[in-house]
Amino acid sequence: MPELPDVTLYVERLAPLVIGETLQGVRLASPFLLRSVEPPLAAAAGRRVTAVRRLGKRIVLALEGGLFLVLHLMVAGRLRWRPAGAVIPGRHGLGAFDFDSGTLLLTEASSKKRASLLLVQGEAALAALDPGGLEVLDADLPSFRAALVRESHTLKRTLTDPAIFSGIGNAYSDEILHRARLSPFKRSTDLDGEETERLFAATRDTLVEWLERLRHDTEAFPEKVTAFRPEMAVHGRFGLPCPRCGAPVQRIVYAENEANYCAACQTGGRLLADRALSRLLKADWPRTLVQLEERQRKQRRGAGAAGAAGGAGADAGVAAGAVAAGAAADAASPAGPGTRSIPAAAAPSAARPARRGRRAGSSRPGSR
Ligand SMILES: [Zn+2]
Fold first, then answer.
1. Residue 292: helix, strand or coil by DSSP?
2. How many whole angstroms from 360 Cα to the centroid of ligand 1?
3. Alpha carbon of 239 to ligand 1 centroid (Å)
4. Residue-averaged pLDDT of the chain
5. Burial class (CB in 10 A: 0-12, 13-18, 19+), 306
6. Burial (0-12, 13-18, 19+ Cβ within 10 Å), 179
């Protein structure tokens, strides 16, 4: 999902193209894109753009007359700048914003159409869409600390909660925690003063560094926005060497999310498990890198730990754990066929119903 650095770059590059231009109209290719009813979308046509802003992970086009078009790209939504009147691409196209100077296309390369567009009237209605998270780049250490400890969650969840911190998602939270050398699953309220300072600095430095890198690497309008970049330390780099210590990057998959981390740098060598997964694999689950290596040695000698996860597919209640089990089995690779094949095969079918149910329960449009 485009996060603060990517969304900021979109805003910076879009602004000179559309500010002062008149929005001729909005074409919708998908009826699901528009999530607001009043004012009608037609009310946006014929108005000049007065500003382009970022609101959390959303992009806002401010129109004269106090109207705001609010775009949330979610995971796979992307923007393209094309010559005026450009055709909306058939497969992934969601809509087009037409200006005399060009057309802003919105695409979503995913079967799950989650990107959203809202048209709202007035600053108060716009402010109501703000999840309220702290803008870390504008914040000082005391306000960062206050946001961090307001609720007790894992650091991974705290950093990515848009009501606590603004604009940080799965990718940059992995990078921030690696830079801070903190476990993704440490409680936000358990940090000492030095750790809090380290996390604050890592958060700012990661976001600033990436914004500068994206500005430098992107010549015109951003066309290659992705959450996976080769320069990242751990995000999307499962199994590859940690750039700090060389140990393989680990991964845990939970719900719709995943955390990538270096056990040596961030968790004192411990491999992380969620509770369902721990129950599932019990003694079979390697707790430390040393145990993992021991297990791999045993498996190479033909004494694999097959069968420990045999019930995974039968119990929908541990579906999220089963997904993690797939990842865990991968994490234990190159493991023997015993541990690897069972959870990996059980995970996708067992996981799907539970994940769908979870999503259905959190259907607030564009809430993240
Ligand atoms: Zn490391």
1. helix
2. 37
3. 12
4. 81
5. middle
6. buried
